[in-house]
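Quarterly update from the structural biology core.
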Amino acid sequence: MNRGTVLFLAMMAGSTLFAQNGIEKALAEIEVNNTTLKAMQKSVEAQKKANHADNTLADPELGVNRLWGNPSSIGNRTDISVSQEFDFPTITGAKTKVAKRRDDMVDWQYKSERCVILLEAKKALIDAIYYNRYIAELERRMTHANAIYLAQKRSLETGASNKLELNNVSLSLSQITTEMKKAEAEQQAVMTQLARLNGGQAVKVADTVFIMPDLPSDFDSWYNQVMASHPTFGYAESQTAMTRSQLSAVRQSALPSISLGYMSEKTMGEQFQGLTVGLSVPLWSSGRRIRQAKRESEAADAVRDDAKGQLYGILQERYFRAKGLVEAVETSKKALAEADNSQLLAKALKAGEISVVEYLVGLSYYYDAIDNVLSTERECQKACAELTDFLL
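Predicted structure, tokenized:
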């Protein structure tokens, strides 16, 4: 194995902790600066306040009656009344539970949307690290191609080679230069995307290596441990709990409500005043509301069961894809380490055993192997990010 391959594999395997910390640090910065997340946080606060807005006491009722007597000799009458309606404590408690369950739903919704943004950011960071490494690799190839070009040019001047061989070397150098420009353009686009996600502030990404993920050996055991942390299932579960609390609140609301107040009646030469008590009995609407609440609770149960089944299938699909890509990365790295002919090609070219064209073709296989390792590893990192996006 030549020095170039050893250096490449060392860079791929080393400094992994630094790379992981670099991604985590950038994600933490993006979470703080992302304008969409800031807006969502304010929306969450407003929604939670709205959830509890209906749990206050009903507005007091003030009544004033001014009645003129006929005949005028009996005088006028003035009535003043103030009343306040109260729910039974059990009704108030049930409404409070509904509001808290709605708060849970809002929190899970925020977590779900947060995961979408952070997953986009993590994929962009993976792309940034990939282009850092790929551009460094292209720079190494360009240095090597320039050296070959200069050597071939000197050979042409001494008559040891021909113009055709120089042109082939020049074309190889041109291809590397073109690929470099394309990679730099893609890198700039990724950095622009990261700046957008970071609230307009540039994100520094200097890493050139990835840490290989340690996937769980058994999917079902892992799924049972993390299922409750997934926003999709958490939202569905909290919605089920909310509809059950809502059903309980509707049943409690079938109880009468009480109103207490003060009333004053004043006529010519006489005045009456005292306390008033009222009772409101919901005879007509409670049955219909209870039936509707039951249907909503049953529907929420069905949605939760469907979400659980769908989530299992989605995560299982992502798990096996990520696992397959991890194995592919390991296989491609091993093949690169064991089947590198770059040093043998250089010796054969120097000894005149092969032509420059044969050397360039053979070297292209080595470059293709490196490109395959880099692209497969990037794909693997993104697959693992999708599998664990809810843990970001």
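The longest strand covers residues 257-267.
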